[in-house]
Structure formats: structure tokens, C-alpha cells
Amino acid sequence: MSCALTVSNLICRYNGQAVLNDLTFRVEKGEIVCLLGASGCGKTTLLKSIAGLLPLDSGEMTINCRQIVGAGINVPPEQRNIGMIFQDYALFPHLTVAENVSFGLQGWDKEAVKNRVQEMLALVKLDGLEKRYPHQLSGGQQQRVAIARALASKPDLLLLDEPFSNIDTQVRHSLIKEIRKLFKEQGVTAIFVTHSREEAFAFADKLAVMNKGVIEQYGSATELYYAPSSRFVADFLGHGSYVPVSVAAGNKLQTPLGEWPLTQTHQGSELEWLIRPQNLSIAPDESGEAVVSDVQFMGDSCRYLVEVSGQRLMVYSNQLLELGDRVRLDIRAHEPVLFSAV
Question: ∠ CA(17), CA(21), CA(27), 5° rounding?
Fold first, then answer.
């Protein structure tokens, strides 16, 4: 894979405060990367900085190996060959679908524009709607128009700011799947912003989890979920239970739930073991040591809290259990994720 975007030591300040603090990451061609974090963490600032819409204090940036920021270079936004899709789609209400899609094709001859518009509308499954206006379309159709417009000029990089936030929940999941498939078929390199981990997991190849202007961790969803580098990443990406443990001689983990083997060396005497609900399973057992202390129905499963050996652990299961039921608790084999005790 060739590198589509490199960001090195990026710093952006506002009123003397670092909004982006020494950010470095790399996006490969054809990858979909999510900037994920809570409001105010700097993800939209980073997106706008890549687009050239915000000034930077220092750092370097390249797109397709062409330097656009750094070493005295600051390529203006219109020369970066970047497409953008905004949260509200930013369609022109007085222009038809076809006119919106062709808006960025100035300089093309009429026949080429017509062919490109038809190609893009077919790509996003809006054939026959070229004469409609934005207000005559559903939210999902408006988003497809925005995508068609952004892709029409063949950008090197596509930036999306909260692209699914205005889509009705009932169609959001199918639309995410459809657009991801489209991007992969077209080899689109994209960076999108969201605060929803569900959207990030469904749409992205890699996640950049951001917190207070820094990237806490960068990698695939499974890597970040099951091997988080910090408590912040662990807690932001999903639920889990923390169990106090210590490391004994022979690289064994001493826990209230029994001894557990380690394949890696860990430092520190006061540690906590992060156990994801997916690493646990339960089954009804009248002689079991664990007791159900809380039940939350989730539709296709239930989320249970079970108490065992003085610990409360979260478990997902399709077993139908009641408060006070005794169960057998099993821990699936996995390499423990350990953090220093708070």
C-alpha cells in the first residue's frame, strides 16, 4: 500500500492553548480512518486542519507523498485535491441533484460533466433523480448526493464530519454498510469524525481515539477494544469490569477469581485486570458461586451483573435469568489487559 496521508508532529493552538498537541499518524491508500472522541477532544479541528481550513502552529503533512504543510509550504485548501462532506451535507437548495453533483467540475467540457454526473448518480443509486431538488429527497438520499459530489472530482482524500448523525436510526446501519462497500469498491481513502463507537466499529478500518488534543491510541477496532493502551481508551470503547490482581512468581496472576497464566511480563504490585463482557460466559447452576445482581434486557441479549468472590462482573448472555439466580461463571482464554490500580 502507498501512503495517502502522513501527519507529523502537528500542533494547533487557540488563544495560547494547544487544541492539537504533537499529533502523528499515517493513513494508507484505500483505508477508512475514524477520528473518534468526545466533544471538544480536537477531532473536528484535526479534520479542518487536514483540509487547510485552520492555521497550524507547526508540523508537517503530506498527501500522496506531496508535501502540503511544512518546510515553508502551506498549500491552500482548493489545491489539496480533498473532498469534504459536512454534517448537514451543505447541498445548494436552489440547484438540482445533477447541478449539485457537477458543482466541482468547473473546467470540464459539457459532455464530460454530463457523463461524470450520470456515473456518480448510478454509483450512489440515485439514477433518475437528477432533476430533483434537495428538499425533495430523504436524508439518506441527500447524503448520497453529497458523496456523489465529493467523489465526482476524483479527490485524493475524502473528509467526512459526523456523516451519519442526521440519518434516521432505522436506516443508519444499512446506509453505513452500503457506503463502506461503495468506498471499498472505489478505493476511496477517507477520514471521518464521529463520537459514536458503533459507527466507528461499523465503518472504519482504523480508529484514532482522541482525548484533549492528542491521539491516545491508533489501530484497528479489535486491537483497541481488546488491547487498549490506557483506561481512557478502554472505557471509551466499551464496558468492562476491573478486578484487583497481583503478579506472583512464575508469571502467574493472582486474582479473587483464581490463578491466571500470563505470557507477558508485567510490572507493579497493585494492578487491575480489565475483563470485557465478551470474555465471560454464564450458565444457570444451582450450585454455582456467582449470583445475578442486576439484569438489563438488550433485545437480542441481556446484560447481567454477577457477583462472585466479592467482585461484580458484567456479562452479556442470551440466557434468560432472574435477579438472585445462581450461575456458573467461566472466563474465556485471553491475554489479560492490566492497568495500574487507581
Answer: 145
Mean pLDDT within 256-281: 84
What 3-state DSSP class applies to 124?
Answer: coil
Residue with cell 459514536: 196
- Quick one: cell of 133? 431538488
Give the separation between CA 114 and CA 124, rounded to whole angstroms: 16
d(CA 200, CA 110): 39
What separation in angstroms does the CA of 194 have from each of 11, 166, 168, 181? 21, 12, 16, 19
**pLDDT, tens only, 196-238:** 999 999 999 999 999 999 999 999 999 999 999 999 999 999 9
**What average pLDDT is seen over the chain?**
91
Give the pTM.
0.89
Number of Cβ atoms within 10 Å of the Cβ of 329:
21
Backbone angles phi, psi at 39, to 5 degrees: -60, 135
> What's the Cα-to-Cα distance from 108 to each of 2, 104, 123, rounded to whole Å?
29, 9, 20
CA angle 193, 194, 196 (to 5 degrees): 160
On the 0-12 / 13-18 / 19+ scale of CB atoms within 10 A, 261 is: exposed
β partners of residue 69: 61, 74
Find how far residue 306's CA is from the centre of its chain: 30
CB atoms within 10 A of CB 274: 19
Residue 327: name the closest of 283, 279, 280 by CA: 283
104: cell is: 466541482
Which among 77, 45, 44, 73 has a CA at the least distance from the CA of 58?
Answer: 73
Give CA–CA dist 175/140, Å, rounded.
7
Environment class of 76 (CB within 10 Å of its CB; exposed 0-12, middle 13-18, buried 19+): exposed
Measured distance CA(187)–CA(108) in Å, rounded? 23
Residues 102-138 as b/e (b if ≥16 CB within 10 A, e otherwise) read bebbeeeeeeebeebbeebbebbebeebbeeebeebe
171-199 tens-digit pLDDT: 888 889 999 999 999 999 999 999 999 99
